[in-house]
Specification:
It is built from 13 helices and 15 strands.
Length: 431
């Protein structure tokens, strides 16, 4: 199979802005466990999981069997008919969400989930004002782009929403970086109060990723969003926790990212996607019943809650819980983070190794400076691929953070193999 020809066909018919990794892009043809193979038969250890989406394992038999069995019965019906797999998955997600009297609406992506959450919040509060975090990313729809605080992923300043950006999502950079965790949190809360004192009318909601994904796996001190929640409640403002990348136990310490800030209770709305489908197109919103039911117009979903994707989600979630993959993410992820920090101590270009569980970021800079080095990140990405390891990239002002997010079933031996490949790439390509 000729990937050069396929690349030319891709460029001829697909948008220029549809990015591809690698100078010579690869076509992945199949996978198993934590490994994938390209069209030329090369095997790779997958440390990115299709952007944190292959949550349990490639070609997980329990999921593929559930998909095949459901597809052999009926593939599609829409939400206009009762759908047993959708009801069953909704029941489980509602119970796991921690939100009391929860209702669940399924979508086909995280973008659509966040779009729905914004619609619910603005309808409930009768306001189009949204608080978002600097360096954030919430999807590629018109409304989601309008609340994205990362210029690399925001192609237009036009928006149906009035967005106000809050400090706090990035601990290691910005005007509060030199403060202690307590002082940092206090400063961000003061900034939030000051901003709300200058708004006119009611703000609808704060939307925040507990750990910023595209932004380079940055996060605030634990408890910051709980402190924010106390301020929001004074004004009746809703809290939307974007769990598209942090959900389902990936952080190891918690099942949801918001639980690192749970002193003020669960969010009003929670959005999810990616890992729950293990590659199938599932997204969704969980919300309190009064918020979810606030719409006074008809609404359905043609593809959200598809019988096939719901069957996949049920099988995947069952496997995750029965095999304690959250615990595995905590144990193996903890070992991997410590291994990478030991490597980083000997590589001047590594500014920071951060993350939780199997959601790890390695930030690269020009040695001796604090200046981001996207060029080094690209070189390391390429070197890892050549050695049989797939990783991702991200970051705020510059794409200089290596993103590591393997399937949650990663073994200790595979973690060590990946760390060794990454160490060689860092020593060689990020001097």
């Amino acid at each position: 199979m000729n990937t050069t020809s396929l690349h030319a066909r891709h460029r001829a018919v697909l948008p220029d802005w549809l990015a591809l990794y690698y100078a010579d892009p690869i076509e992945l043809t199949h996978g198993e466990g934590r490994h994938v193979w390209d069209a030329e038969g090369r095997k790779y250890l997958d440390f990115f999981g299709g952007i944190l989406t292959t949550m349990t394992a490639h070609a997980l038999p329990e999921v593929t069997k559930a998909v095949a069995e459901q597809a052999s019965r009926i593939i599609h019906s829409s939400t206009l008919y009762l759908n047993r797999p959708m009801v069953e998955l909704a029941e489980r997600v509602a119970q796991l969400s921690g939100i009391p009297d929860a209702r669940v609406f399924f979508t086909t992506s995280g973008t659509e989930a966040n779009d729905t959450a914004l619609m619910l919040a603005t309808a409930y509060r009768r306001s189009n004002q949204i608080l978002a975090m600097r360096n954030s990313y919430h999807g590629r729809s018109f409304s989601a782009i309008g609340i994205t605080g990362n210029k690399g992923w925001s192609p237009t300043s036009l928006s149906p929403l009035q967005t106000l950006y809050v400090h706090g999502g990035v601990r290691g950079r910005g005007p509060y970086a030199a403060l202690s965790d307590v002082e940092f949190t206090d400063a961000c809360v003061a900034d939030l109060r000051d901003m709300l004192g200058q708004t006119r009318g009611d703000v609808a909601a704060l939307i925040a990723e507990p750990i910023q994904g595209v932004g380079g796996f940055t996060s605030p001190p634990d408890g910051l969003y709980a402190r924010f929640r106390e301020v929001l409640r004074e004004h009746g403002i809703l809290w939307i926790s974007d769990e598209v990348q942090t959900g389902w136990g990936r952080t190891g310490d918690h099942f949801w990212g918001w639980q690192a800030h749970e002193q003020a209770g669960p969010p009003d709305l929670l959005t999810f996607a990616k890992g729950i489908g293990n590659g199938m197109s599932i997204g969704g919103v969980v919300a309190r019943a009064d918020v979810m039911n606030c719409l006074d117009a008809n609404s359905i979903s043609t593809f959200g809650g598809s019988p096939v994707t719901m069957a996949a989600g049920l099988a995947n979630l069952s496997y995750l819980l029965e095999h304690d993959l959250q615990g595995n993410a905590r144990r193996v992820g903890g070992l991997l983070i410590e291994r990478l920090r030991a490597i980083a101590a000997q590589v001047p270009a590594v500014r920071d190794v951060r993350g939780r569980g199997l959601m790890i970021g390695v930030e690269l800079v020009k040695p001796g400076t604090d200046e981001a080095s996207p060029e080094a990140a690209t070189r390391v990405l390429e070197s890892c691929r050549e050695a049989g390891l797939l990783i991702g990239k991200g970051g705020g002002h510059n794409t200089s953070v290596l993103r590591i997010a393997p399937p949650l079933s990663l073994t200790v031996a595979e973690a060590e193999e990946g760390a060794s490949i990454l160490e060689r790439a860092l020593r060689t390509c990020a001097p």
